[in-house]
Amino acid sequence: MTPTSPLGSQVPDDASQDLVGTIGWVTVPIVIGHPGEVVVPVRGGTEAFAAWSDEPVAKNTRVVVVECRTARSVSVSPLNLG
């Protein structure tokens, strides 16, 4: 069972913490203050997560997971390949 915080939201477990540093891509654009969606490789497949960012991120942008907010949501940053 996943523990909950005092506010009742799920606390990330060790498996979701492993997502930090993982590269994925945006499938639903991220707008400041509202989640989008990213797909990242997990356990030999891919999974979708709600995603938040400090800046707008367009669909199909490659991103890196910088924080696990809950078991099913992450914070991401656009991946700069230059």
Strand and helix layout:
Elements: H1 14-17, E1 23-28, E2 36-42, E3 45-52, E4 62-70, E5 73-78
Helix run count:
1
Global mean pLDDT: 86
Structural class: mainly beta
Shape: globular
Sheet-strand content, in percent, reads: 35-45%
Q: If you had to describe this structure to a student in words, what would you say it looks like?
A:
The chain is mainly β and 82 residues long. The protein has a single domain (14-78), classed as Beta Barrel (OB fold (Dihydrolipoamide Acetyltransferase, E2P)), CATH 2.40.50.140. Helices cover 5% and strands 44% of the residues. It contains one helix and five strands. The protein has one helix spanning 14-17; strands at 23-28, 36-42, 45-52, 62-70, 73-78. The longest helix has 4 residues, at 14-17. The radius of gyration is 12 Å and the shape is globular.
Protein traits:
5 strands; mainly beta; disordered N terminus; 82 residues; five-stranded mixed β-barrel
What is this entry, summarized?
With 82 residues, the chain is mainly β.
